[in-house]
Amino acid sequence: MPINVTPAPGVPAQPDRAAAQRDADRELFAQLQEDGFTGPRFALLRERLWVYGWNVLRSWMRKGTIIQKCRERHISFAAPYTEVED
After folding, report:
1. Which residue has better confidence, 3 or 54?
2. Angle, CA 73 vertex, CA 67 and CA 75 arms, to 5°
3. C or N terminus of the chain, fewer CB within 10 Å?
């Protein structure tokens, strides 16, 4: 039996949310550009992107995904992923 998933009232449907996210991204880019990619707004974005990237990388290292990704790109390295700190 198929499940009918409808958004809650006031929550846009998935394609609309994607479009809204792209609009928000464009607005943020325009603001960052206006700020010369400096200042508190850029510092906050930089910090959030760094934390996000670090969390993804640590997860990939714990699961071994990073090994697979490197092999797909013919990248070799000496240190085993077991040396990752939690």
Report:
1. 54
2. 60
3. N
